[in-house]
Amino acid sequence: MSHLSSPPPKHKGEHKGHGLPRGSERCSSSRDKDRSVTVSSSGPMPAGGKGSRTNCSPSTPQKVPNRLINEKSPYLLQHAYNPVDWYPWGPEAFDKARKENKPIFLSVGYSTCHWCHMMEEESFQNEEIGRLLSEDFVSVKVDREERPDVDKVYMTFIQATSSGGGWPMNVWLTPNLQPFVGGTYFPLEDGLTRVGFRTVLLRIREQWKQNKNTLLENSQRVTAALLARSEISMGDRQLPPSGATMNSRCFQQLDESYDEEYGGFAEAPKFPTPVILSFLFSYWLSHRLTQDGSRAQQMALHTLKMMANGGIRDHVGQGFHRYSTDRQWHIPHFEKMLYDQAQLAVAYSQAFQISGDEFYSDVARGILQYVARNLSHRSGGFCSAEDADSPPERGMQPKEGAFYVWTVKEVQQLLSEPVPGATEPLTSGQLLMKHYGLTEAGNISPSQDPKGELHGRNVLTVRYSLELTAARFGLDVEAVRTLLNTGLEKLFQARKHRPRPHLDSKMLASWNGLMVSGFAVTGAVLGLERLINYATNGAKFLKRHMFDVASGRLMRTCYAGSGGTVEHSNPPCWGFLEDYAFVVRGLLDLYEASQESSWLEWALRLQDAQDRLFWDSQGGGYFCSEAELGAGLPLRLKDDQDGAEPSANSVSAHNLLRLHGFTGHKDWMDKCVSLLTAFSERLRRVPVALPEMVRALSAHQQTLKQIVICGDPQAKDTKALLQCVHSIYIPNKVLILANGDPSSFLSRQLPFLSTLRRLEDRATAYVCENQACSVPITEPCELRKLLHQ
């Protein structure tokens, strides 16, 4: 293996990027911040010389479309006018490679990926590069959000043979789909420390002609090594490791990397990683009388507060950007991803449950307000992402953050009215600029703006508490709050006139499942029925547009069509493990929020389908893809990292525990044990890589609470008991409404429910553990005491 250059390691969750604004419809991801090139190969590559390089000047894009014009993916359509003979992933491309004995050039990205667009503009729109790719390679474009299985397989190769990974991901394959060279973003030309894309193409072309057999042998050897390295199986183990031990080790690893001043768990870039915050809350609950428990709570709450005050949060339009480029959460990478909004809404709702501080509930509401306004489709579904780049003005080239940043002059013009009662002459604009740290020179350092696109501009980030800002100008705190909110609303209205970032209007089952959870959990915690209605509409969308009744399978994707319609690819893109796992979680959360048993029934059916399609009956755990769908890929993987999104196996472990609590079906508990056992080695080695699975392991080895409310779902006393449960942070529980009907779905699953009675015809709660139930409780305050024990 040789490395032509080696950048710093990248965060595995660094997961989506910018896109050029190619559509205005509203219904969005993480860029690879590293600008250097990673090239890895399974065999030696000769060093190239500058003498072989000629100048490739970009030309205007070819007007005749390539075959990607027939695709639905926004990302593939962005490449439909490249002068490259692109193929979508499929047998047509593979047959051509075998017939013509050519290597496959696989390029993977997504529609809001900044460096994907950079490479397109520099290389894929270049006529000479187009001829090289079309004559000497079979070029394949893949939207990683459509085909996460393809992405995971070849990213495993990139990460195993280089110092990092990211997107765009560019890999050269044999006609049998085995990788032999790979990298991330390539500039067009060679630099002092970077190899240009044209040079790489010429070297690989030459090697394929001169040393093809060596490349094939090396690719087979590397593939075999990856297969052995990626195997996750129970082996001879019968039980998973100790939950208490893994819990403690995971906490200690997080504690060592925690940033005391600004929160978070790295220097820079900093990612939200809600799975870590969820783990810390869970750890606090089981250790709340210890110093470590208090420490875990403080780490999570402080991180959430610093994020919400930082520039990673859009203070004008709400929602969170993908990640922060600095330690202070100040300057973000500006794209906004649906999966971040979904998970962070839950994290801030849980922070409110634990702390009672309305700061956190306000942030959660703001996130969902953003999603409802900008990412919701009229079908009830949710679109994927908004880009980081947009034109500063119509007709101009897109620039990063243009939609979100402000100059002092703009703010002064919009907020010029004087503030009465201040101790010095003050406008509302000056007040807002002081509070949010805006300066004439701009508050973005040149090191964070290498292209100089943000010079003189500012990202809003809270610099002072309301109390300090009020004291600085001799004002009342509530007056300052009102003035700032009014100012932000004026900025919001002014921002509407700017060209919007590109919207990725693709709708993914997995991320929609996460968003159903986000609305359902937050709506239940805050007692807001309108939020639960969004979750219900999201679930209806999934059942109507992304579920095939005949086969019982989920589809992976659908697309926003014209006039609010929903379109599908033909043939459909079937769901992956994460689609089933995240949708099942969403449906379980929606049942607990709405008490509509139909959602629970569908969750059970989808879990049965997941078990049929993905379960590894020999090794335990779930494969990421169906065997048939991934035919031809050199690896069939089980995802083993909780990153920007939780691993589908981690979520499935929780789902299986909850489904066992709702139904008593022993098979699901057995599967949960087998899954956790299969991941034993990974859990023991690096528990911090799987904090969501560590939570599931702890939950399995503790006692799950079955909280049963007997009553009329529409009655006030029933709602009061339900709201009492929702207001308390209890992650290891199922909430069941028993309406007294022995023929109901849940009564058929759990016969003991028919033995529980209302006390004096009032709504009555029972807390059941280990097949024993508490005394009947009719008062919310008494239920609260019991649940806090």
From TrEMBL:
<dbReference type="InterPro" id="IPR004879">
    <property type="entry name" value="Ssp411-like_TRX"/>
</dbReference>
<comment type="function">
    <text>May play a role in fertility regulation.</text>
</comment>
<dbReference type="InterPro" id="IPR036249">
    <property type="entry name" value="Thioredoxin-like_sf"/>
</dbReference>
<dbReference type="InterPro" id="IPR012341">
    <property type="entry name" value="6hp_glycosidase-like_sf"/>
</dbReference>
<dbReference type="InterPro" id="IPR024705">
    <property type="entry name" value="Ssp411"/>
</dbReference>
<feature type="compositionally biased region" description="Polar residues">
    <location>
        <begin position="52"/>
        <end position="63"/>
    </location>
</feature>
<keyword id="KW-0221">Differentiation</keyword>
<feature type="compositionally biased region" description="Basic and acidic residues">
    <location>
        <begin position="23"/>
        <end position="36"/>
    </location>
</feature>
<keyword id="KW-0217">Developmental protein</keyword>
<feature type="domain" description="Spermatogenesis-associated protein 20-like TRX">
    <location>
        <begin position="65"/>
        <end position="226"/>
    </location>
</feature>
<keyword id="KW-0744">Spermatogenesis</keyword>
<feature type="compositionally biased region" description="Basic residues">
    <location>
        <begin position="9"/>
        <end position="19"/>
    </location>
</feature>
<dbReference type="Pfam" id="PF03190">
    <property type="entry name" value="Thioredox_DsbH"/>
</dbReference>
<feature type="region of interest" description="Disordered">
    <location>
        <begin position="1"/>
        <end position="67"/>
    </location>
</feature>
<dbReference type="InterPro" id="IPR008928">
    <property type="entry name" value="6-hairpin_glycosidase_sf"/>
</dbReference>
<protein>
    <recommendedName>
        <fullName>Spermatogenesis-associated protein 20</fullName>
    </recommendedName>
</protein>
<keyword id="KW-0964">Secreted</keyword>
